[in-house]
Specification:
Blueprint (H helix, E strand, L loop, with lengths): L2 H9 L4 H14 L2 E4 L1 E6 L25 H13 L4 E6 L7 H12 L4 E5 L5 H10 L3 E3 L7 H7 L5 H13 L3 E8 L6 H14 L3 E6 L15 H18 L9 H6 L3 H6 L5 E2 L6 H6 L11 H10 L3 E2 L10
Parallel strand pairs: 1-8, 1-9, 2-3, 3-4, 4-5, 5-6, 6-7
The structure holds 5'-deoxyadenosine.
Length: 323
């Protein structure tokens, strides 16, 4: 698909592209859903991303950092409830040195689970150390491939460095996940088409796409956005991504479910094959407020939703099976 063809699909307002994505999903990755247990282990962040509630300059937030033992315990609980992938996510919290992280990774890997990290931009050497300690996958959204927009949204950050991080992760043999926000002020359909082409160029193994939801305690808090339109467009971007990257893993994201209680089902019926239940303890998951009213559906309710649409939970670690 070239850019114009992608643009045509993004502009169309018929369900055809969603139906086609669902067919390709079924053909290439089947009816099984992979669950990834998410642990939000620190909401302390050195960055100032204009859209994110965890940004350093937000003083209206209770900050927390779990101890290594608490993180490992949450992973154990996740494993006991049947989860075969643990995702460790945090703000860019410099307290967690390479040694501290490697210890946590090694302990969690003893549980015989796949381990995903989502802890931001690090050096090649740091990524290498985590990999050697046992990490399998890494999530780092590019957020947007529109360089000018990227610069505006990410003060004191470098688009080039983020790209380099993604190629370093690939080079080190991680299953690499990226993705974008949809509906950011100033974002165009053209740039979303470029985002999708970038996912293909990187040969990403996982793609997470989420609608932008304004957080009141951020510079974009007052942005005039149509949440329903953001949700629809993010599902469309996700569907086109499935059509282009047929065999990858694509989550129905929490931001989709936050906008519409049926968001996850819509996504699972339009190309998604992964769900990420949040297994952080109840107090801290509320404080991990990237955007307001983050959906926190529990595991049992998620599983019954999955079954209600004729799909089932896989009992494997759910690595990408490249076709
Ligand atoms: N709305 C939606 N998603 C957001 N993220 C950060 N802030 C917001 C927001 N206001 C997403 C980013 C990040 C992921 C962890 O959360 O894409 O990569």
């Amino acid at each position: 698909m070239n850019k114009n063809e992608i643009l045509n699909l993004l502009e169309s307002n018929t369900p055809d592209v969603l139906i086609q994505a669902d067919k390709i999903r079924k053909q290439y990755v089947g009816d099984e859903i992979h669950l990834r247990g998410l642990i939000e282990f620190s909401n302390i962040c050195a960055r100032t991303c204009q859209y994110c509630g965890l940004r350093y300059e937000n003083k209206n937030i209770i900050r927390y950092r779990l101890s290594a033992d608490e993180i490992i315990q949450l992973a154990q609980i996740g494993k006991k409830s049947g989860l075969q992938t643990i995702v460790l996510q945090s703000g860019e919290d410099n307290y967690f040195s390479t040694d501290k992280l490697c210890h946590i990774i090694q302990e969690i890997k003893k549980l015989d689970v796949a381990l995903t990290l989502s802890i931001g931009e690090k050096s090649y050497q740091e990524y290498k150390a985590y990999k050697e300690a046992g990490a399998d996958r890494y999530l780092l959204r590019i957020e947007t491939t529109d360089k000018n927009l990227y610069k505006k949204l990410h003060p004191n950050m470098s688009f080039e460095n983020r790209m380099e991080c993604l190629y370093n992760l690939k080079d080190l043999g991680y299953e690499t996940g990226t993705g974008c926000l949809v509906g950011l002020p100033g974002q165009t359909l053209d740039s979303l088409a470029e985002d999708i082409l970038f996912f293909k160029k990187l040969d990403a193994d996982m793609i997470g796409i989420g609608p932008f939801i304004p957080h009141p305690d951020t510079p974009l808090g007052g942005a005039n956005v149509d949440l329903t339109a953001n949700l629809d467009l993010s599902i469309r971007v996700m569907a086109v991504t499935r059509i282009l990257l047929k065999d990858i893993n694509i989550p129905a994201t929490t931001a989709m479910e936050t906008i519409n209680p049926n968001g996850r089902i819509l996504a699972l019926n339009s190309g998604a094959n992964v769900v990420m239940p949040n297994i952080t303890d109840d107090i801290h998951k509320k404080e991990y407020e990237i955007y307001p009213d983050k959906n926190n559906e529990n595991l049992d309710s998620l599983i019954s939703k999955i079954k209600s649409i004729g799909r089932f939970v896989a009992f494997t670690k759910g690595f990408r099976k490249k076709i």
